[in-house]
Amino acid sequence: MRTTDFDYFLPEECIAQRPAKPRDSSRLLVFNRDDDHVEHRIFHQLPDYLNANDVLVLNETRVIPARLKAQKIPGGGRAEVLLLHRLGDMTWEVMVGGGGLKPGKKLQIINGPQAQIREDLGGPRRVIVFSEAITPMLDRLGEMPLPPYIHTPLEENSEYQTTFARHPGSAAAPTAGLHFTPNTIAAIEDKGVRIAKITLHVGLDTFVPVREDDPNKHPIHSEWCHVPLDVVQAIKTAKEAGGKVVAAGTTTVRALETAAHTSSHQNIPEFEGPTSLYILPGFDFRVVDAMLTNFHLPRSTLLMMVSAFASKEQILQLYKMATIEGYRFYSFGDAMLIL
User: Fold this and answer.
1) The pTM is what?
2) What is the domain range of residue 113?
3) Reduced to 3 states, what is the DSSP secondary structure of residue 64?
4) Distance separating alpha carbons of residues 72 and 157, to the nearest angstrom
5) One pLDDT digit (tens) per residue for the chain, 339 residues
6) Could you count the other beta carbons within 10 Å of the beta carbon of residue 12?
7) Residues 210 and 255 in one domain
8) Within this chain, do residues 29 and 172 fall inside the same structural domain, yes or no?
9) Taking a C-beta distance cutoff of 8 angstroms, is the pair 291, 257 a contact?
10) Do residues 46 and 188 touch, judged by C-beta distance below 8 A?
């Protein structure tokens, strides 16, 4: 297995710059792994593929407006801080933009507190200490950290937030969840499908392509997640009734399979903590029966995960088909349901 096995050509015009309006008017490519059958639908038709004994699992993380503009002290040169992980009330792991940002350097956050760089973690990553807690100020000071391939500004921050987002902590949206509207969720519940919710805080490493020739040598990133007891019970009930566990997004897949692989028992346990689970072709899926996901970047760990759930050959063929059919790719793009 080589990283180049997960490469594909995508015309730039296929990269969605704006979300669909309404959210559930995005397209939905439905693929059945058993017979290779493909259907082209609209996202609001998702309930057609769910049954009363199924459980749909969503990630209710909330994206924080983590991009902060700053000035260097002294001198006033421009800098940028992108919050990644909160290490304490005033201490964060961040990515910085600007020259000369070494340990000891001070920054003035525009219209906010001062900060000092404590540690160089390599590359653009730093540990930074603010003069006061920054979290309560983020809605006023911060901007949403859009992926680098989206060049069109948001009309409002809620566009890059799921309608069910609750727990702040992500540097990127769980994009499969962006398609859901309250009406879609209500239609799913009307069919007797149980809605369950986990939390996984998405890091920016999710966008980093695999640069090693051998994907197994890629240093996989860690993300914090929580699979609560009520989700565990909902999954157990669905499995016992012959229903399927439908994971909305690769983040949900990662959280559920992390919990399952911490135990040797058949039942999934409750889990809370960091996960470094790396899902490549050949992975043993213990929980997830169906996956709802967007179309992912070439050579990305997310594309590799999807290629583990179906096959690499099937996924790349579907991506080629989606390109020809005019599907929109990446964070604001269309969705795929893999059964």
Assistant:
1) 0.92
2) 67-141
3) coil
4) 27
5) 999 999 999 999 999 999 999 999 999 999 999 999 999 999 999 999 999 999 999 999 999 999 999 999 998 999 999 998 889 989 999 989 999 999 999 999 999 999 999 999 988 889 999 999 999 999 899 999 898 899 999 999 999 999 999 999 998 999 999 999 999 999 999 999 999 999 999 987 766 778 899 988 888 888 999 999 999 999 999 999 999 999 999 999 999 999 999 987 777 899 999 999 999 999 999 999 999 999 999 999 999 999 999 999 999 999 999 999 999 999 999 999 999
6) 7
7) yes
8) yes
9) no
10) yes
Q: How many folded domains does the chain comprise?
A: 2
**Any alpha helices (H) in the chain, and if so which ranges?**
138-141, 182-190, 229-240, 250-260, 301-309, 312-324
Burial track 168-200 (b if 16+ CB lie within 10 A, e otherwise): bbbbbbbbbbbbbeeebbebbeeeebbbbbbbb
Q: Which of 2, 9, 1 is nearest to 298 (CA)?
A: 9
31 is written with which tokens? 């693929």
* Residues 12 and 88 grouped into a single domain: no
CA-to-CA distance for 128 and 47, rounded, in angstroms?
Answer: 46
**Residue with the two structure tokens 């994206």:** 63
Are 202 and 170 in contact by the 8 Å Cβ rule? The answer is: yes
